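INPUT
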Amino acid sequence: MDIGIIVFPGSNCDADTHHVVRDVLGHRAQYVWHEERTLDGLDAVILPGGFAHGDYLRAGAIAATSPVVRALRAYAAGGGVTLGICNGFQVLLEAGLLPGAMRPNAGGEFRCEYVRIRVERTDTPFTCALAPGQVLRLPIAHAEGNYYADPPTHRALLAGRQIAFRYCDASGAILPGANPNGSHDAIAGVASPSGAMVGLMPHPERASEHLLGSEDGRLIFESLARWVTPRPPATRDRLEVR
Amino acid sequence: MTVAVEQTARRSEMSEAGLRRAEVDEIRRRLGRDPNRVELAMFGVMWSEHCAYKHSKAALQRLPATGRAVLQGPGENAGAVAVGDGWAAVFKMESHNHPSAVAPFHGAATGVGGIIRDILAMGARPIALLDSLRFGPPDDGRVAPMIHGVISGISAYGNSIGVPTVGGETVFAPCYRTNPLVNVACLGLARSDRLATARAAGPGNPVVYLGARTGRDGIHGASFASAELAGDPRDRSAVQMGDPFTGKLLIEASLEALASEGAVIAIQDMGAAGLTCALSETSARGGVGMEIDLGRVPRREDGMTAEEVLLSESQERMLLIVEAGREDEVLRIGRRWGLAAAVIGRVIAQPLLDIREGSTPVASLTPRSLVDAPVYAPAAEEPAYLDEVRRVDPATFPPAPPRAALLALLAAPNIADKRWVFRRYDHMVQTNTVVPPGADAAVLRLKEAFPRGLALSVDGNGRYCYLDPQVGGMLAVLEAAQNLACVGATPAAVTDCLNFASPERPEVFWTFREAIEGIAQACEALAVPVVGGNVSFYNEADGAIFPTPVIAMLGVFADVRCHATPGWKTDNDLVVLLGGGVGQLDGSEYLTTVHGIAAGRLRRPDLAGTARLIECTRDAVAQQLVSSAHDCADGGIAVTLAESCIAGGRGARIGLALDRGARTDRVLFGEAIGRIVVSLPPERLPALRSLASRLAVPVQALGTVGGSRLIVGPQGGPPDPWIDVDVDDLAAAAQAEFRIAPRAQQPSASDGAPR
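OUTPUT
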């Protein structure tokens, strides 16, 4: 598999994602500079975490205007498989490629800690190796992860099964105390209607090796391998983003 | 080195440029003429205590700086030690106390930015930050904004640049009320054979400016940091403003330029004293000179004077000496990362800084004259207060009820769980953090040299140093080494940050010299070199701070998978005390928390015995004999046991020896170096005993892990124990977010977040 990892000025989880994709999972990984104009030939694209353009203005707002994000629109429209992690998710929201928006955390502070998320949808390239309702233990590290969707958008998310992950407790229960940032409906990650594009705030790349305390994040990357490998490229046309 | 230190004389005795009259006379003698205004200003910043270490240089010679693994000792931007497989760990700690007192957010943020550039200047990628913070009491309304500002500043800068903050300490005492301490340590990694230097060379080679544009911020910052805080609102202009985004770009661009084989001859950051310091230090180290055109320096605003450009401490700037003919390559890298990049001059063979603006001469000085500031031998005199505080005998205070005292200690700001601090720092980015903040030391794996790893601990106890600076200095070193041993790492090197009041007061300088002596003796006993450091004087506003030397110690792992953490792991494991001796209440956290005093007489530690304990513990962890290891520090053995219970989520039943009429509070809460609590499966006890006996380390079985309560009583004990508390109640006490006075509504315009 050829996986492109987009590098914006200020990305800081690009190398961590590259390490997991290449050294832990054994795929081919390449960095894609923010000025690139095409993503053709990549089996999947990952927008890593960080502070693209310093997150000045709003998290992800400046990065969303990059040449590579224009290329990403075409890539996604063609069914390309895309994962946005943390700041990468914020960029996808700012670009309008995924619905909703981020507000500053309810507590007003940056938070870096392990949380639990429940898998809400399993027919996506990043969740197909997971079971519905499965609980993953992953770290978060963000100041603006308080997901918001207005009522019509939220209804559309529910109708389109676009909620990919929700914050939960160890048993999988959705409780206010298990929601680290005040996200609406405990939403930790959303998918495009087809599921080809997924964004989430927790960092799966930080939880892909036993030595670092959790391997749950690896299941998200392993889903990708399971999704892409057995399918010839043509079948990916089904995954159109509308 | 980016000699950060602090200055000369009290403000009243200083001439305009912050120099003493005798110093101005010395400058005239060296030049053989009167300096012009700009030259005098350059001397003013370069001869500030912050840049010149005038009062500390001679005393610092006492510290041992050599060792087999040392690749770079004091003298460059940071120290470096070999950590195996051709890799070098580069590390350094620096203070940003004065700026943080005046503008907590930006002061702390630029403290992070500044230390990172020192690591970068060694050609290393920064891989971890730790910070050692001191504040006044958290329930004080004047202190709370400082706490919030400093922690927010570290969080905003460190998180954005993608360098994890993996540990540190946050300590509170009234003496830091108006003069907080913000000491930041940074660790970097480089190939040993690719370490960079700050030694200019090669006449004709271009001098390249890289990074943010130069503005009017931070002018005279080095001089400001070299006098007592006077509460002057104009001091705020001496504080720099940080931009972490540019800092991140500068890391990537500098490392990319350094990776272009042979392109970069030398590199140094522009920190304290800005361009003046970078030009004179790189030239002086290389024994060369430079022709510089200030007109080519990228600027943020029009109308800046030559003096402002030379003295500006604008952040996120580096100076590079580049191989002639390869400057375009370096400039291209800088511009690709969106940075200002320009050739501002050339190296010349004659050791002269010939600084012009266009064709107008600005300054003409030898680099040595700026760098070799006068060195002073301040008077030292034992402070009178020592007699008084040492006369206090803790035995005259009534013992507190043990259960209540334990819960009070766990909830005390200095001991309580610091999750409320470190969860605001990204401590996981770069995915190397094996043991996160909250344990005895931070543990990192090295992806590049796996399974090798590194550990770092920062420690200092101002209260101990207040009571006995020499013993306090020793204890800071031993404590750091014990912390490393507990996680399983071998102590390898030290960098220090020495925070003191004015060295011009003999009673302060005496504590400085004593602390250095203590640090030196302990480092010699452990065979650990001091490869770099920083001195921060003039830490006094309402009164002097405690003498506060802070030690950052680096440890190495041959196999980082063999590490330990403080929490109990398995029911029925034995709890064993390695090392011996009863603690003392003198100077203890118990005496401060329960009885509200800092007094008593400290014992001199057994240096050789502690060195053997450290080796024994390290081996026990590395050989995976033990399930947990935790250092006995603040709050004594009772707090150590409670912390292992909380971290492990399980209880223990413990019996402690009570010798000849010893008080229970002394047994439970007394403090002493040289004690480590481990837990292990019973079948491994013989192996541990044989390891310990080989090193003559006492082993004492204390009890057993299990249940949901911590029960502590006398050994072989009577039915009613001293302490019997549910682990959940211990955790609730330690994790209760103690009262910090409420946060202000909005940060003021001059001290808000950088956007």
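end of record. Chain B touches chain A at residues 155-156, 159-162, 243-246, 248-249, 337-338, 419, 422-431, 433-434, 436, 445, 447, 560-561, 755 (CB under 8 Å).
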